[in-house]
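Workshop exercise sheet. Pairs work together: one partner reads the sequence aloud, the other fills in the structure field after running the prediction. Swap roles for the next sheet.
Pair: D.N. / O.F.
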Amino acid sequence: MLFTPKQMSPYDLQREVLRGYMRFYSWRQWLKYLFTFRFTKLLFQTWGRHIIRTWRRDKRNKAFMKTLKQLPWPHPTRLVQGNVKRVSTE
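Structure field:
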């Protein structure tokens, strides 16, 4: 099943997914695992940071994000305005 949020463009969804990954694999989490001697988790944290950085630097992924941004998508206010019923005040 494909998840398609109603009020979020594909570009915004992909951007927020990347932001989530970057927060999950943050330096703060990395340091937390280092100072609590959780070296296995530290290894996975380092690996995850590397994957995200590599993905963001890849020219093909930059082109993918640019293409997503250019896709035609209705603006959220247009969606709301289309559903509003107008009542005559006369």
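Discussion prompt: The CA atoms of residues 30 and 46 lie 7 Å apart. What would you look at next?
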